Amino acid sequence: MNRKWIVAIATMFSFSALVAGLSIAMADDEGPVHDVMEKINSKSNAIKKAIRAEPGYKKAKKELPTLVKDLVQLSKDTKELAKDAVKKAKNVKDAEQQWADLSDALTKELEKFDAKVNDSKSEYKDIKSAYGPVSQSCTKCHDVFRVEENGF
Ligand code: HEC
Fold first, then answer.
1. Ligand 1, atom 21: nearest CA belongs to which residue?
2. Which residues form the signal peptide (predicted)?
3. What is the pTM (predicted TM-score) of this model?
4. Which residue's CA is minimally distant from atom 13 of ligand 1?
5. For the domain 31-150, what is the CATH code?
6. Which residues line ligand 1 (CB under 6 A)?
7. Which distant-in-sequence residues (6+ apart) come within 8 Å of 71 by Cβ?
8. How far is the CA of 23 from the centre of ligand 1 (A)?
């Protein structure tokens, strides 16, 4: 075989290895963190939907305590996944500590939200505005731990 062919075949081979490597990196949508995030997202969306507007809130009100309770539990489950999260966060400093702090922060905001939801003196607007800090604690963790490819 002449040299040109060897170079061409070698180039093709390394190119397909690169493509395979890239698709593995990009298809990174499984694992325990991903699974818990899917659940967190669906609960969070249900809560946001319930508090979006006052008429809807009046109807959905009685479901809120359970949704919040479930989300608090999922937030605690998230904290337990530090080992898995850290594996994917090679560039994050003190990753394990940050993971613990950021998931605790979410739990804390959720517990405040829970207190508002269960306080009979709360009005619709109090409950709606109490969810803001919860969403912010989602973003704070994503800023640190979520890799670009996820597209969020
Ligand atoms: C302690 C850190 C942390 C907190 C807090 C957090 N997330 Fe995430 N989230 C992640 C990480 C890491 C990923 C990427 C997971 C993966 O794909 O491996 C992610 C991914 C997601 C995804 C994309 C699904 C996926 O796995 O690709 C959604 C949607 C999401 N989070 C929603 C939320 C919402 C809503 C909240 C708040 C109620 C929240 N997250 C709080 C760390 C966090």
1. 37
2. 1-19
3. 0.83
4. 146
5. 1.20.120
6. 28-29, 31, 33-34, 37-38, 40-41, 44, 78, 85, 88, 99, 102-103, 106, 134, 137-138, 141-142, 145-146, 150, 152
7. 40, 43, 44, 47, 110
8. 21
